[in-house]
Amino acid sequence: MRNEPLTIHTAEGALRGTVDDGVFVFKGIPYAAPPVGALRWRGPKPVAPWQGVRDALQWGNASWQNREYCVLAGGGEPGPLSEDCLYLNVWTPDMEPARSLPVMVWIHGGGFSIGAGGLPPYNGRALAARGVVLVTLNYRLGHLGFFAHPALDAEVPQGEAINNFALLDQIAALQWVQRNITAFGGDRRNVTIFGESSGGRSVLSLFTSPLAAGLFHKGIVQSAYSLPDKKRAEALACGVAVAHHLGLDNATAEELRALPADSFWSLPAHLGNGPVAIAGDRVLPKPMVEVFTAARQHRYPLMIGYNSDEASVLEYFGVNATAVITELRARRPLALKLIRSLYDEHDDVRLGRKVARDMAFGTMTLLAVQAQQRRGVPGWRYYFDYVSENSRDLCRYGSWHGNEIPYVMDTLNAENVQMADRPFTAGDRQFAHRVSEYWLRFAQDATEFSHQLAGETPWPAWRSGEDITLRFGMKGEAAIVPQRRFMRLRLRLLRLLARAMVRLTV
Does 390 reside within a domain? Predict the structure, then answer.
């Protein structure tokens, strides 16, 4: 069966979807009112119910962004761009299962500036066919998603300011899931949120947001970076500078909302938000890293990991990973000597990539699982080091930032313009099936009382004594191997040195 129409009833109205190879698909479902006009830079409002049957056959609009950059680095063509972008997509294998199915909600990455839930690597059909309800979503990006300005503060009582509109969009999508996912065969009491890069940062932020409590039950974090959240005072100053650049001094809220939506993504780099949320508003009262450091995150199971060549993404931001070693040589020669011994690496380029990778991504994984243990809930740590068979000459240093996504989502058959001349092989697809099985097991089985995940290799929850990390791939080759005390000394040292290291700037 393919592309057969069907109708389903949600709290807001009836939807017409299709069947794709036995999986029911509903695209472009509005989960909140369009955040346009007077609703720009406000929390998402409820969708107006509709009469009759609404088609859910096409992807919804993506948020304004740099289209070419999304095609190059974000996973593909994002489709129509609009400020009216609050739409989600659902794949389900059975709308009336004998037992409600686990729900997985994917939050796309892209530095909070590019991406969309309908991109080919995020297609939910393959995972849904294996027994889950899969949801992807669009949310506000760039300055439409994260913005602070004194004129907006003046509209609300002191202490009630909202700046993380993108995170509120994600929360609204999770509220939609709680209202409606039962109609798609999903279990509203078993919702896993997962995402990569800024999507992974979103998951961590939702773990620390008081407004997200109770809307999900566990999370998976892929390649979340350890950059600090932006302070609200800095965000306010940036907002004033943005308004000035766009011709508004002493701007009113009305004047700000009248600015064209497409004027924000083309701002110069120094007026950008950076790929982080804003700490200090109602959505994120405290910086995410600070909350995890204090082990005060929500008590939900968490899986977290990163890739072997995360330094690949730093090049997009113009960051020279070798500069880390140069600065250490000049400012911390004894630390550099110790680092060289821990990494057993004497080439500055290779060492720089590894140190930058572990400082920017690895330390976050260690902090998170340590916080989980202190909070009394399980955490699992992984390391992805597989490279597709036709790309091993290209990926000389390991698995690039984002390379795990089609393995996790089991979408190696999806169209990917970046891989057109290096097609995936049967071996790659077999490994994707093995990797994605752990994500499915986590969604199906993990609870706050779990001690391990079942699978071809049982995966114990992280404990400080055993310090077990599950490796997906070994030096680019297919393998799934648990390893004790993996990078333990490296990451602990880098956490101590973090303030003295080169900071990632965008």
Answer: yes
Give the model confidence (pLDDT) of 182-212 as tens digits.
999 999 999 999 999 999 999 999 999 999 9
| pLDDT value of residue 422 | 85
Question: Is 108 a catalytic site residue?
Answer: no
Q: Within 10 A of 286 (CB to CB), how many other CB atoms are there? A: 16
- C-beta of residue 106 within 8 angstroms of C-beta of residue 134: yes
* Number of domains composing the chain: 1
Q: Which residues contact 443 (CB under 8 A, 6 or more apart)?
A: 102, 103, 104, 132, 190, 192, 218
Of all residues in the chain, the percent with pLDDT exceeding 90 is: 82
Spatial CB neighbours of 148, under 8 Å, sequence gap ≥ 6: 161, 163, 232, 235, 236, 238, 239, 278, 281
Is 1 contained in some domain?
no
Residue 244 to residue 256: CA distance in whole angstroms = 11
Q: Which residue type does 89 have?
A: N
Spatial distance between the Cα atoms of 115 and 63, rounded to a whole number of angstroms = 8
Choice among 83, 196, 310, 404 that is catalytic: 310
Does residue 197 have an active-site annotation?
yes
Query: Residue 330: CA atoms inside 13 Å, Cβ hemisphere, count?
Result: 9
Residue range(s) defining the domain that contains residue 409: 7-503
Instruction: Answer whether residue 108 is part of any domain.
Output: yes
What CATH number corresponds to the domain at position 332? 3.40.50.1820
Has 401 been annotated as catalytic?
yes
